């Protein structure tokens, strides 16, 4: 593991007219690290995530990413072709709603295989073997490989989306509320799976969530956002066990106790 | 007065006005310069409904000259409605001579077939194209498909072929089979059977594609590489027929199935009528031709 960060974020701001999306956000993300971005809805979490993943152009600031050659590249200075190539090879993006991240009308196997074919794999047998392997790793049985995601449950769709993203061995994965809308037992298994995969593959991840339990389980570090600003950041356990900012204290104390 | 009225009643040569032809010729030149790239053009209303070859007719009208000899085929046949009416149209508005013989034609407008007889240098093959975008049914957004062409993101095309193999055990696409032109653009060869795909490769004739409703023109210049997409372990194959043409006995040509009665009787005949007639004139006979083979 190197001491150099994978992603360097400097003073990212995004304004929608006069309204603030997110303002002056800086941090570094290191290889193998999982960063959680928490906050209530409307706090700018998703805006920030979209800016980082180049799905949205920020008003100001810069994001640089350390490519496999070890050099930092400014994401917004890259050509669109390079950016899109990065997005389907070295990166993953897990949407809250699986139907945004999956092709609902093609089979599960093709969903997983699409990225492989996009980077030039032309051997059907190999693609299918890789797809089968990945379905197994996300606990989808191999006999569902030719079914369309429409026939899958919510939890299965989300797992399929994860497999589709991880198949090219990305180094950085963005997740937008990966467990949103799932019931708790499915959520628990998905989190377990994600934790295993992140650990096994040495992924870096930025996870946006409003669920502090998800943040605690998955992330090493977290940043807390409110009204587009970062109110607190630090190691996850420290922030959750000893919140400093008044808003974080409120957030932590709002967790329902069962 | 009479002379004046007559002058007004006349069409410009080949129906389209000269400015329109210039515009379409520019699009054609651009299309030839970038093989396989879909060039937008200001498609005109033609005196025929969309889907009947308005794109092909506009391309033909823009390249045709008084010396040209025109052949029009529809699914390989010279005598079907679409072919007959387009041929009559150009006889009327361009006074060109027409033919049904592939070898004699300088311009061949086609709907969904490439003639069996190999094309020569100097010939132009004009295709009528309903949907020019090969990615259309995989990605409905035009903005996105254009971007995918620009960035050469063609992984999705293989997703379709993957689905075919997953569902049917082989690539089940039999027509409009996607091709890659000169190693760059993925192109829809219009709904020709994939049987004809190999004929596009290194063709000596210029191939022009016109889509009137979709307002796109694209082209394959002569001697251009045209490669049908496939997988390493599922290579591209053309259709094979078990029996020869029932009329002329030809092997290795594309056949149409003709139902003869309501008791399952059927015959397979050449889809290229001109090819079949020429072979029969040469004395070839199939088993249903009703005549004995010559000599």
Automatic annotation (TrEMBL), chain A:
Keyword set, alphabetical order: ATP-binding, Lyase, Nucleotide-binding
GO biological process: organic phosphonate catabolic process
Sequence intervals crossing the membrane: none
Record domain ABC transporter: where: 7-252
Lineage: superkingdom: Bacteria
MF (Gene Ontology): ATP binding; ATP hydrolysis activity; lyase activity
ATP-binding found in the keyword field: yes
Protein family according to the UniProt entry: Belongs to the ABC transporter superfamily.
NCBIfam families: CP_lyasePhnK (TIGR02323)
PANTHER family membership: PHOSPHONATES UTILIZATION ATP-BINDING PROTEIN PHNK-RELATED (PTHR42764:SF1)
Protein name: Phosphonate C-P lyase system protein PhnK
Source species: Nitratireductor indicus C115
Name of the gene encoding the protein in the UniProt record: phnK
Automatic annotation (TrEMBL), chain B:
Record field: catalytic activity: alpha-D-ribose 1-methylphosphonate 5-phosphate + AH2 + S-adenosyl-L-methionine = alpha-D-ribose 1,2-cyclic phosphate 5-phosphate + methane + 5'-deoxyadenosine + L-methionine + A + H(+)
InterPro entries: PhnJ (IPR010306)
Keywords in alphabetical order: 4Fe-4S, Iron, Iron-sulfur, Lyase, Metal-binding, S-adenosyl-L-methionine
The keyword Transmembrane appears for this protein: no
Broadest EC class assigned to this enzyme: lyase
EC number(s) stated in the UniProt entry for this protein: 4.7.1.1
UniProt GO MF annotations: 4 iron, 4 sulfur cluster binding; alpha-D-ribose 1-methylphosphonate 5-phosphate C-P-lyase activity; metal ion binding
GO biological process, one term: organic phosphonate catabolic process
Family: Belongs to the PhnJ family.
Function text: Catalyzes the breakage of the C-P bond in alpha-D-ribose 1-methylphosphonate 5-phosphate (PRPn) forming alpha-D-ribose.
Protein name: Alpha-D-ribose 1-methylphosphonate 5-phosphate C-P lyase
Source organism of this protein record: Nitratireductor indicus C115
